[in-house]
Design goal:
heterodimer, A: 380 residues, alpha/beta, Luciferase, domain 3, Rossmann fold, 2 domains, seven-stranded mixed beta sheet, six-stranded mixed beta sheet, B: 419 residues, Aldehyde Dehydrogenase, Chain A, domain 2, 15 helices, 20% strand, globular
Chain lengths: 380, 419
């Protein structure tokens, strides 16, 4: 099979090396469009069914005038088994799986070495813009077992690993044996806090893991840490915390109080395995931004056209990073609001948006809603 | 009007309202013919800016005609039943009496269903307590306001209570169930299962119109050529569009009998044009984002699953045609997503139906063939076999069940002096 067309890899690397959040929007759009068109051609050449999908699209992607006109895949297409791939299995070095809740099929994306390398570069470029590029001690609020990567890496492990380039040393402060809920390794946590208390430290955990298995047990025991210069990054969504009526503000306040730091050092970011290498942290104005090598389009569910600023819609994420799976243009099941298309007070250029919620799937759809197909086998 | 549509916050309020309308109906018996008089006037009044835009209102106008309702009552209750008279049967006589108070749980996706359901029970002389889903309250209110303006509607209005409360209020659902003598339950699997489990009195009779799907089929000559082809496409588009393809009578798949002359791509283009035209006349005003997601997923999954599959769709989620072959009804997506499947013989998919297919819409030129398909469909659980374009024409029986008779009691009087 053909590798990326000549020059495409260099163009991707150029975008990765470009100022992450300061490309002028028109230039950003033009560079992405040209690159994504070439990547779609590359994908069509390598996957017949994907080519069929692109051919069925109501407009020719090669003639598209904006990224919003390009054909996209729904995020649940990545739940397919085997995973959608653009390279041979012998080139796959790792498969990432989403954090599906019980009973759901996880999405899976297959990474080859170039995609994996660009994924790391992408996360580093984005995170550096928010927390600086200096390496520092890294406290992982999760178990070492979660990180034990075989051929398949879960979303939690992938997120932890994505921030590893910022680490001088890494300590997991939860224990787990897979048979029960994780618990805090108090001696390890106390040791890390004692050693790095006043230093600049990075911590990361899934939002609900931090809340359920770290904040709540420490709070119940009245334990407080003194780590005023810590940066706590978290991701993974709010659904499980919403079920416990925990707001973002309450979460940040509790975490900050526990570490003895300011609430603005607690940073929520949005991301998904299907959009690997791109994360969307909140800026100091509570908005999410898009790096040079990616785009976000918020589409009106009624028309699927991009919404105006101030409106909400389905989030489409776009990325030039993958070459082993077709995660270039992915329509998610998330709702976001476009705050503005340029000019956030934080100084980052391009679209700024806020995550609103997951699309609720459990809707009563009336008397024609057949959830379970019951059909006889063909008559013999 | 304020008494008709009531917001309930406590079980006690529901029990009291139920008692009130039951007593009114008991105190003043109305014959089906008298009810039809009022319903017909109501149907004639259903015009104007407050109701014209309500999906299905044109059908409701037709439904409420004497010409529609009277034959239904005669078929279900007999000629004498129309005027509440006794029907002689050898040495005895029979007469239909109302069950009493009927609770109605309509589905949340059909705007006129609360009133269709209500009209069936009223024809049986019953009082009605109707729980209207939140999304249908405004439309139901507008339609009932028209009834309140109709001369002579007072006797009917007194026996109706329209209830509004949250679906999640299990205490109110239980109170409503406990207060009724019969129930007409419509909707999807979760709703029907939940409502059936409510504590109805032991004597209550339940008429359940649960989740079903419907299918269309065309024989070779009908889709592969001929002057009727465009017309069939337009009819099918209408059937798909109504109720946003979320009704049990909405076609989810179209089976095409393979024909030497048939060109699927050409037919699909014609069908797409009909869908586009229907969309121009009846564009969506809103859509739930979950349905948009489901439509996008259906398009992608169909094309990624099988290299022989094809699809036609616009950039918007307005409509989708999924083209392929096979005799299995695919899992429905709804939202104007139609699977178009080639089969060797229309009897193949029909042989696979069990009880889930409600309506089979047919475009078949040959009478003998149509009769054979109807026979096979009936044997395989289909309750309605109709011409394409008429898949939503609500009538009795529905889902194989009468609409008036389940909510009446047939009282048998054996004369004391009879031998």
């Amino acid at each position: 099979m053909n590798a990326l067309a000549a020059g495409v890899g260099e163009q991707i690397d150029a975008l990765l090396a470009a100022p992450t959040f300061s490309l002028e929007p028109a230039e950003h759009q033009a560079r992405l469009l040209a690159l994504l068109q070439r990547q779609l051609t590359y994908a069509a050449d390598r996957n017949e069914r994907l080519r069929q999908y692109l051919d069925a699209w109501p407009s020719d992607y090669r003639a598209a005038e904006s990224v919003a006109d390009l054909p996209y895949l729904p995020v649940r297409a990545f739940k397919a088994s085997p995973p959608l791939m653009l390279v041979g299995t012998e080139e796959i070095i790792r498969t990432l799986a989403s954090s599906a809740t019980t009973g759901q099929t996880p999405s899976r994306v297959a990474l080859d070495a170039p995609t994996s390398r660009r994924m790391v570069k992408g996360v580093v470029a984005i995170a550096s813009d928010f927390i600086g590029s200096r390496r520092r001690p890294y406290l992982v609020i999760d178990t070492a077992e979660t990180l034990a990567a075989g051929g398949q890496l879960g979303a939690r492990a992938a997120a932890v690993q994505g921030l590893r380039p910022f680490a001088t040393e890494m300590v997991c402060c939860l224990n787990g044996d897979g048979s029960r809920e994780p618990w805090i390794d108090e001696s390890r946590l106390a040791g890390f806090a004692a050693k790095w208390g006043e230093a600049e430290v990075l911590a990361y955990g899934f939002t609900y893991v931090i809340w359920q298995h770290f904040v709540k047990p420490l709070r119940e025991r009245g334990i407080r840490l003194r780590m005023p210069n810590i940066r706590v990054l978290h991701s993974g969504g709010w659904k499980r915390l919403q079920d416990q009526a925990v707001t973002r503000a309450a979460f940040a306040a509790e975490v900050a109080e526990l570490f003895g730091c300011a609430t603005d050092r607690v940073l929520d970011f949005y991301g998904m395995v299907e959009n690997v290498g791109v994360i969307y942290p909140d800026c100091e104005y509570g908005c999410k931004h898009v790096p040079a090598f990616a785009a976000v389009i918020v589409r009106d569910p009624l028309t699927l056209r991009p919404v105006d600023a101030g409106q909400q819609g389905l989030v489409q994420v776009c990325s030039v990073l993958p070459s082993s799976f077709p995660g270039f243009l992915v329509l998610t099941d998330d709702i976001a609001e476009v705050i503005r298309y340029d000019g956030c007070a934080c100084g980052r250029r391009g679209i700024s948006f806020r995550f609103v919620k997951r699309v609720p799937q459990a809707e009563i759809r009336g008397c024609g809603n057949i959830e379970t197909a019951r059909q006889r086998p063909a008559a013999v | 009007m304020s008494d008709l549509l009531q917001r309930f916050d406590s079980p006690r309020e529901i029990t009291a309202a139920a008692q009130r309308v039951r007593e009114r109906a008991h105190d003043l018996a109305l014959t089906p013919s008298q009810v039809i008089d009022t319903l017909e006037r109501w149907g004639q009044s259903l015009r104007g800016p407050t109701v014209d835009g309500i999906p299905g209102v044109a059908f409701l106008r037709l439904w409420l005609r004497r010409g529609t309702l009277e034959p239904m009552v005669v078929r279900e209750l007999g000629v004498e039943g129309l005027n509440g008279a006794w029907h002689e049967e050898r040495n005895a006589r029979l007469r239909a009496y109302p069950l009493g108070l009927i609770g109605h749980w309509p589905a949340g996706n059909i705007e006129i269903q609360p009133l269709l359901s209500l009209s069936c029970a009223l024809l049986g002389g019953n009082a009605c307590l109707v729980r209207v889903p939140a999304g249908l309250v405004a439309h139901t209110r507008a339609l009932l306001e028209k009834l309140s303006e109709v001369a002579g509607a007072h006797a009917l209005l007194e026996r109706i209570c329209i209830a509004s409360f949250e679906h999640e209020r299990a205490d109110l659902q239980r109170a409503m169930a406990a207060a009724v003598d019969g129930a007409m339950i419509w909707g999807g699997p979760e709703a029907v299962t939940e409502i059936r489990a409510l504590p109805f009195p032991p004597w209550a009779r339940l008429a359940v119109f649960g989740p079903r799907l419907s299918v269309a089929a065309m024989d070779g000559p009908s889709w592969s050529g001929g002057p009727q082809r465009e017309s069939w496409c337009r009819r099918l588009a209408r059937d798909v569009w109504q109720f946003d393809q979320q009704a049990c009578s909405s076609p989810q798949a179209l089976f095409l009998e393979r024909s030497a002359q048939g060109d699927l791509a050409e037919f699909a283009a014609m069908l797409a044009a009909a869908f586009e035209e229907e969309n121009r006349f009846h564009p969506r005003e809103r859509i739930h984002p979950a349905l948009t997601s489901a439509i996008c997923l259906a398009r992608a999954s169909w094309l990624l699953d099988d290299s022989t599959h094809r699809a036609l769709f616009p950039a918007s989620p307005d409509w989708t045609l999924l083209l392929g072959a096979g005799s299995t009804v695919p899992m429905p997506t709804q939202g104007r997503t139609l699977s178009v499947l080639l089969v060797e013989d229309l009897l193949e998919p029909i042989a696979r139906f069990d009880g889930m297919v409600q309506t089979l819409g047919l475009a078949v030129g040959d009478d003998a063939k149509e009769a054979a398909l109807a026979q096979a469909a009936g044997r395989n659980g289909v309750d309605r076999i109709v011409k394409l374009g008429h898949m939503h024409v609500f009538g009795s029986p529905w889902d194989g069940t009468d609409l008036v008779r389940p909510m009446v009691r047939l009282v048998r009087h054996v004369r004391a002096n009879a031998d």
